[in-house]
Amino acid sequence: SPDGHDYEIQRDRVCLKDILGNGQFGDVHKGIYRDKDGNEIPVAVKTCKEDNEESMTEKFLEEALIMQQFDHPHIVKLVGICSENRPVWIVMELAKHGEMRAYLQNNKHRLDLCTLIMYSYQLSTALSYLESKKFVHRDIAARNVLVSAHDSVKLGDFGLSRWVEEQRVCIWEILMYGIKPFQGVKNNDVIGKIENGERLPLPPGSNGSVEDEEVVPPPKPARPQFAGVSPAGSTRNISQQSIPTPPN
Ligand code: ATP
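Above: the input record for the complex with adenosine-5'-triphosphate. Below: its predicted structure, written as tokens.
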């Protein structure tokens, strides 16, 4: 690679353990990586199914190529890749507590507003870092944020990264303890709703609290501020329909 960093690692330094989840390309395992100094580092290993086509494998590795450029405390770090033979693996730093959405839902009782705002702040430092590298994530949502420790969240899943998406939706998800925005609304219908002035309900406790109000329609904006909002579920393509010109 251009910076002289070779991310290829020897497969026998990686020991796969339990499955953590299923990714788009294959299972994601917990694992242990033994580095050159003999340290045992807990890792997450994304695997690419062997029956995937070659073009899929390339697509899979793209995420690693993107991640290797980053070095930030709130972005999941790439440890290395095993790409010289099959199955291809992407080895990365393990976020011990897994997906933020589930963490928010399961730990409500010990997540005070300060912690939620800290998470939002940490993610904004990660986004600001990405922007400084002229990078954009494109899929900011609670499901793509991982929890490393009770006081530290990290941005993961760079499969879609390209341009920065509206961040407020993710902060809404945090303040709502992991509730998905726009549930029951089709991806393609979200933009229309937003253009019509519909907004997500204010999270409890924010600004005088309007807990019972469903949707607060403010005056119709002259130009919609949102584009490519991630509604409930997976929402990969909505952003492609209205990609704003990124600031230079
Ligand atoms: P999708 O496209 O559906 O988001 P993906 O291929 O991008 O899938 P991920 O969502 O990144 O795969 O990973 C699948 C699951 O594996 C995650 O939901 C999470 O539970 C777990 N996981 C991924 N990376 C890590 C990590 N670094 N630390 C801990 N768990 C992880």
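Notes for the reader.
Residues 20-21, 23-25, 28, 44, 76, 92-95, 98-99, 146, 156-157, 159 surround adenosine-5'-triphosphate (CB under 6 Å).
The longest strand covers residues 14-22.
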